Amino acid sequence: MSNIVRIAISMLMSILFxxxxxxxxxxxxxxxxxxxxxxxxxxLFNARTxxxxxxxxxxxxxxxxxxxxxxxxxAWIDRPMNSGEAGAMLWNLDxxxxxxxxxxxxxxxxxxxxxxxxxxxxxxxxxYMRTSSAYFTxxxxxxxxxxxxxxxxRGGR
Length: 157
Fold this sequence. Notes:
This protein has 2 helices and 10 strands. With 157 residues, the protein is α+β, with helices and mostly antiparallel strands. The chain has one domain (26-155).
């Protein structure tokens, strides 16, 4: 009898750990970037950078025939985001960003990824945030701290 209990407990624990591991790798969040999407970043003491993108929750699923609004919306493939899910995504990367401004007259800041071992990941993320009407998919999980944590990113749906 005790062997059956041990096997049952072992099976339940492996299922639980499998589900936790899957949720930490994330789920696809489809977004449409551009004008209304905001990007901020903070450099950290260990030469890493937090890239944070702010967005609106779409009223429909990304997999439906209704397109996401240009420049600001994100949704899960199978459902819209609910009000308890964060409207920001954070990606912690080893990347250096620089901002340039014109010395005279009005200027729109230019943001460039200038270094770091994750430079190849950071560049498309930054570029998609400022590209009008481009779709991208970020693999994310909810941190329960006010943002979704990005584990992967690619252009397109």
